[in-house]
Design a protein that fits this description.
Shape: flat
CATH class of the largest domain: Alpha Beta
Structural class: alpha+beta
Number of domains: 4
CATH architecture of the largest domain: Alpha-Beta Complex
Radius of gyration: 26 Å
């Protein structure tokens, strides 16, 4: 009996030691994966990096080629683990190759989670391309917007297409809607019923390049046919190639939204948040820019703010926030500088304010929390700041 007891104790100690080693390895592996995420996919709004543990199996789903390569290299150091990394969306077999998609409606919400109660993160506009990254068990899908932003929308908000179907769309004659608002009419006249609303930036296929009575025949991504006014639209490529990012153009685009309401996550004339107004101003001038304030501040050319607005130029982006007690920065607001201390921004509504205490429009709260100014006009192009005509999502 004594020998049996000793054997049981030894066996228990053996398995306990094995479990401890396994737990230690698991923690080490988890820490190494976290380091890879920090290095190659630090912003979850722009890069997917999901890790799933199932026993000794590890699956990493990522949109980053560099992160995938780093994970597979790491796997060599953990031979007892079955580690697999997949590059999404291309290697997500659940999508059956149909990961390219086009937005069906004038605006759709991109949300932080797969439910209607989750935060509205941003919007995407009709006819713009997105990548479907993952399905969920319900009718929500994880998508990546053409500006890089990742979030959830309903499956019916987009039309998933094959590579050939996307190529057909890409090579078709397309039109962009230019006015703040508009409609697609069922017939080529303003008295006919509409089949959809439109906002600036919506993209439609020009069906057979047909024009009638001052209207152009169009097709929505989900196949609806209708007519839009010729004067409110322009051929997409001609529009993209004609854009010129100047201070005058940028400020004029922002002024198109004067009096429009503040809407969290909004990027269209239906309503914008502060960075959404900036996004709209750049988009209507043919430029891709990052979506959120904390992202925008990483781009462009830093402007000296030590002498007030002396060194500011019209078109500069004013970034407001404050330093927390722990030393981190809360980047909370952004506006477009107009000159003479004045700027335009979205707060309650889109309006002008001033950094000048002697100006009737003096905005004391923001003026006291101006912590950074970046200049995008004349800044070098980056992966996230470039003409929309060069955006890789339009050429998937």
């Amino acid at each position: 009996m004594k020998r049996i007891t000793q054997a049981v104790i030894l066996l228990f100690a053996f398995f306990s030691a094995c479990a401890t080693i396994q737990a230690d390895e698991s923690q080490e592996l988890n820490d190494q994966l976290a380091n890879i995420k920090t290095q190659y996919a630090p912003d979850s709004r722009l890069e997917l990096f999901d890790v799933k543990f199932e026993g000794s199996k590890v699956l990493v789903e990522t949109t980053s080629d560099a992160a995938k390569a780093a994970v597979m290299k790491l796997a060599e150091d953990f031979p007892k683990w079955e580690i697999k990394a997949l590059k999404y969306p291309e290697e997500n077999t659940e999508l059956d190759g149909k990961w390219r998609a086009l937005v069906n409606y004038s605006t759709i919400q991109i949300q932080a989670g797969p439910d209607f109660a989750s935060e509205w993160s941003t919007q995407s506009l009709m006819g713009t391309p997105v990548r479907v990254l993952k399905k969920t068990p319900s009718y929500w899908i994880l998508v990546q917007n053409y500006d890089g932003y990742i979030g959830y929308t309903t499956a019916g908000s987009v039309r998933r297409v094959t590579a050939d179907e996307f190529s057909t769309w890409k090579n078709s004659k397309r039109l962009i809607w230019l006015e703040n608002f508009g409609a697609i009419y069922s017939e080529p006249n303003l008295e006919s019923p509409s089949i959809s609303d439109l906002v600036a930036g919506n993209v439609l296929v020009w069906k057979n390049e047909e024009t009638r009575n001052g209207f152009r025949h169009v097709e929505t991504p989900d196949g609806r046919l209708g007519w839009i006014t010729e004067k409110g639209s322009q051929e997409w490529r001609a529009w993209a190639d004609s854009r010129e990012l100047t201070a005058e153009n940028l400020i004029a685009s922002a002024h198109r939204l004067l009096g429009h309401p503040y809407v969290w996550g909004g990027v269209s004339p239906k309503g914008v948040d502060c960075s959404g107004m900036v996004n709209f101003a750049f988009m209507t001038n043919g430029y891709n820019i990052l979506r959120d304030v904390s992202q925008i501040r990483r781009e462009g050319i830093d402007v000296d703010i030590s002498e007030g607005w002396k060194n500011f130029k019209p078109g500069d982006l004013l970034i407001f926030g404050k330093i927390r007690d722990n030393g981190t920065t809360h980047w909370r607001h952004v506006g477009i500088y107009m000159g003479d201390g004045r700027f335009i921004h979205s707060a309650t509504s889109v309006h002008e304010s001033s950094l000048n205490p002697e100006d009737p429009d003096y905005d004391q709260g923001n003026a006291q929390q101006l912590i950074k100014v970046v200049r995008m006009i004349g800044a070098p192009e980056t992966e996230n700041f470039h003409p929309i005509s060069k955006n890789k999502f339009f050429d998937m």
